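Re: export button greyed out
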Amino acid sequence: MNLSNTDLSRFWSPKVHELSPYVPGEQPKISNLVKLNTNENPYSPSPKALAAMEEQLGDLLRLYPDPNATALRQCLASYIGLTADQVFVGNGSDEVLAHTFQALLQHGQPILIPDISYSFYPVYCGLYSIEKCEVPLSEDLTINVSDYQQPNGGVILPNPNAPTGELLSLDSIRQLLTANANRVVVIDEAYIDFGGQSATQLVPEFDNLLVVQTLSKSRSLAGLRVGFAFGQAHLIEALERVKNSFNSYPLSHEAQAGAIAAIEDEDYFQYTCQANIAQREKLAGQLQALGFSMTNSHANFLFVTHETASAKDICAALRLTGIIVRHLTSSPRIDNYLRISIGSASECELLVQALKELL
Amino acid sequence: MNLSNTDLSRFWSPKVHELSPYVPGEQPKISNLVKLNTNENPYSPSPKALAAMEEQLGDLLRLYPDPNATALRQCLASYIGLTADQVFVGNGSDEVLAHTFQALLQHGQPILIPDISYSFYPVYCGLYSIEKCEVPLSEDLTINVSDYQQPNGGVILPNPNAPTGELLSLDSIRQLLTANANRVVVIDEAYIDFGGQSATQLVPEFDNLLVVQTLSKSRSLAGLRVGFAFGQAHLIEALERVKNSFNSYPLSHEAQAGAIAAIEDEDYFQYTCQANIAQREKLAGQLQALGFSMTNSHANFLFVTHETASAKDICAALRLTGIIVRHLTSSPRIDNYLRISIGSASECELLVQALKELL
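Workaround output, generated via the alternate export path:
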């Protein structure tokens, strides 16, 4: 709806006209599609998480949940080796990120973000009137932390980066934190469990580090909506103040109980992460044999480009065979790439067969 | 934590220092308390809603939910007699209200709110830098809509009002909408199902009306976190633009499916609403016999004051007997009142017995 020329737009706050909302990957309502477009985990959630959620279904739901999610924060703190006042939880990591932009990144100076990165970051900048400075990835589509040293209002980047999957070492993160000691540096670790080393271990050392994680990828719970942040207590306090000025009870009983049980089921977590990694390496080899090259992904997706066929054509042709992958067109540098989520073994096999026939 | 004099506060966005976050009613972790402090419904959620939620617990949870909650919005639209583009859904009505303040009430002029009302409204004003003009309730603690005619950036009020439970007629709402034809008027109907007439029927007629509702009270689902707004499509579009700049997927599979089943279980809904109303009228009579007077509540709570005993003392004494009620101290005009949620028949009996012994 475009209301800019109608009378009715007078009801909108002026800001609303300027927004460019985020467009999530398609959640198709057709079944039997091979869905490799939104980086969901092909493995089911932990059976223990499902059992814990089932236990919540009863009279309890007439009551408000714990607004402070005390048990969940304590569980995460123990798991990571921090204290509960160093943990924040929200309705998916997107909500956690939104509060982060408002609570910690509004300093009247542009924040630094990679030019090719999670495309929600510029949207948050728009929502909270934060200027951004997009720092170009290197020629090989990796992040060079020495490019993040100009004056700024904060730094945010995913590690591994999306949609490239390229990983920064902890040494690089440390360098980034040291170079920006007076600003908050947010490391968005949505994909860290697929082969990276988490920066959460740097929290006690750096008072400017906030690490964001999610249950949506490595814990197979995209449908539950739970995300976290870890940082020293003064950073978490800022998030709590914004959260408690926005919505007292963002996490249902279900979400709190399911999250605790998922975190506690370490064996299942390790098993499914390793299986995803093995499948990623296998698929990478198969795609290389078909003429694809790719970034060095440490996430649950591959970011690939073909030597002759265009990404746009491959994406459209795959769709006709019932396979959905993501073609991101946000930057000309990557518009001949496809982001392909790591599916189950059979889904990956269907993909490889379809590509063999297409190419 | 007060960081204003420490170095670490330099990491906070300046806005964070100014916030006065909302403090929700206590959610005690002790069991066996008679909890009459947060207006939860004493009846369990609809068994059909619980069954629908149980069906969601499985492999499906590894996938993102429908970001647009299409089925739920269609269900609500049919139920109310509107179209899906006239319905917005969020993570509890608090999130819906937050987006409403940002999307529709920022016009550089003070918004009008009752001076005694839902205490989250001033908090949202703080979060979004919206000035407010608090319009005093009449001497009898009711809202007089003719007091809402000065220039403003919008109007928001609960109907029935909280914490008084006093109800405005649809004629008064109509008068309010007509007098503020160039600003959005938000009617927050968290308690409407306990004896009021909803303003949703005025949506087709008024392009400036937004009606907010929740599953937390009359549907016994405070623990699920689902709220709604109804308004003409241009108002809903503003909310969608903000929501999609904040969090694509606020409602889990569980929340969407549970909400649909709860709305569809009309018989259970009518039965529990009528039972709450009957219990309210019975409790009102019992309390009057004990020397309490009260506002004319159309909500699932009573707002009472005693002829001799102070509200503060009664609240503290009840607490010692394991009964929690709410003593709101936000305004001197009501600091000798208690807000008492309508509990089950046995909870209300325990309350009456305890009061008989105390007074």
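Residues 1-5 of chain A have pLDDT under 50 and may be disordered. The button fix ships in the next patch.
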